[in-house]
Design goal:
The protein is an alpha+beta fold. The protein has one domain. The protein has eight helices and seven strands. Strands 1, 2, 3, 4, 5, 6 and 7 form a seven-stranded antiparallel β-sheet that branches. Helix 2 packs antiparallel against helix 4. The chain starts with 5 loop residues before the first helix and ends in a 25-residue tail after the last helix. The C terminus is likely disordered.
């Protein structure tokens, strides 16, 4: 249903390499709200948040001949949002595509030798509205087609199911014990660089924190 849709076919015919898929994701707005969209509705509505965009990227990568696979980057509970990456591999290099409200959390070139190395490339740009560095884990790979068939490409309810399943994936710590307690707060120059174009209505609010968008406009 997704790959046979005329609007989808027209779009995918123009996305001939991973970088062009990322360009499309960058061109559409990041919405506020928690509604999940299938790749089909991402195309029809021309909007996507992190999970929506990651699944659309996985579907578009499949169209190019890659496997439809995602990995999730995760904080400790209550600190921040998780972040879905659509991964692909060229020879020995792993890369990914991603939709994010924050510019530093988008795509990575296929030059990383392991999933851990790829995940660590996001560390400096992964912080919350309190300027806390929040990336702690990455998950095992989720092969979407093997687990769900292709229903997730057009069915929003299946995307809701995937969101729940991602939280149950085995995860691997990125920091050794004690490292998190020694982390500095994110400095104002880094905050400014990594919040260009942010939709402040769509950012995550940490537990027991008053939302203050200006904290990132230093």
């Amino acid at each position: 249903m997704f790959f046979n849709d005329p609007q989808v076919q027209e779009l995918l015919s123009r996305l001939r390499k991973p970088a062009e898929i990322q360009e499309y994701l960058d061109s559409i707005p990041y919405p506020s709200g928690e509604r999940n969209r299938s790749p089909l509705n991402v195309v029809r509505e021309a909007t996507a948040h992190c999970l929506d965009g990651g699944l659309f990227a996985a579907a578009a990568l499949r169209y190019l001949g890659y496997s439809a696979r995602v990995v999730d980057l995760q904080p400790d509970a209550g600190m921040d949002d998780d972040h879905v990456l659509a991964i692909y591999q060229i020879e020995d290099g792993i890369g990914c595509l991603a939709k994010s409200n924050y510019p530093g959390l988008r795509a990575r070139q296929p030059v990383y030798r392991s999933l851990r190395e790829l995940a660590m490339s996001y560390f400096e740009a992964f912080f919350n509205v309190n300027n806390q560095r929040t990336l702690r884990y990455y998950t095992t790979v989720l092969d979407l087609e093997r687990r769900y068939g292709l229903d997730w490409t057009w069915d929003d309810a299946k995307v809701d199911e995937i969101e729940k399943d991602i939280k149950k994936l085995r995860r691997f710590p990125l920091l050794k014990p004690g490292m998190a307690q020694r982390l500095d707060m994110v400095d104002p120059f880094t905050v400014k660089a990594f919040t260009v174009g942010v939709n402040w209505e769509g950012v995550f609010r940490p537990v027991q924190t008053d939302f203050a968008p200006d904290v990132h406009r230093t």
